[in-house]
């Protein structure tokens, strides 16, 4: 199914953007760059990530997962569990952004890193679980519509 391939590729893209944003924050923490110098770029990259997350989750919620639930009813509860995790991932992302919106100052850099790690972990755990589920679905499960023939 094309949706499965798209979702797997999209997880890779999102993961690379998550890693990129957190690498920028870690670069400040390591003292490689000044706070002011990277702040605008971190905010810009975080906005890109926000857009990518919104589009990805919307595609899953509105298009991909309803189709998968219909074609593969055996996986319906697990697919719904994946969708339910979106709120937690977005909450962790918004907690990170709330500190970033203040600006990465020396006083809040520790909190920014902490919340960034929490978001990164929440996203990666979700993406890993979802990718595993998609692999199971694509590993040869016969869709309901084909098994009735």
Question: What does the secondary structure layout of this molecule look like, with pairings?
Answer:
Elements: H1 2-29, H2 35-71, H3 76-102, H4 109-138, H5 144-147
Helix pairs in contact: 1-2, 1-4, 2-3, 3-4
List keywords for this structure.
single chain; 149 residues; elongated
Strand content: under 5%
Summarize the helix and strand pattern as letters: HHHHH
Rg from alpha-carbon coordinates = 18 Å
The dominant shape is elongated
CATH class: Mainly Alpha
Query: What's the number of extended β-strand segments?
Result: 0
Low-confidence segments, given as residue ranges, are: 145-149
End-to-end span in angstroms?
19 Å
The helix/strand class is mainly alpha
CATH architecture descriptor name? Up-down Bundle
Mean of the pLDDT scores?
Answer: 86
Sheet of most strands: none
Summed up, the helix count is 5
- Proportion in helices: over 70%
Instruction: State the domain count.
Output: 1
How do you describe this structure in short?
With 149 residues, this protein is mainly alpha-helical. The protein has helices spanning 2-29, 35-71, 76-102, 109-138, 144-147.
Could you please describe the fold and organization of this structure?
This protein is 85% helix and 0% strand. By secondary structure, the protein is mainly α. The chain has a single domain, classed as Four Helix Bundle (Hemerythrin (Met), subunit A). The protein has helices at residues 2-29, 35-71, 76-102, 109-138, 144-147. Helix 1 runs antiparallel to helix 2 and helix 1 (2-29) runs antiparallel to helix 4 (109-138).
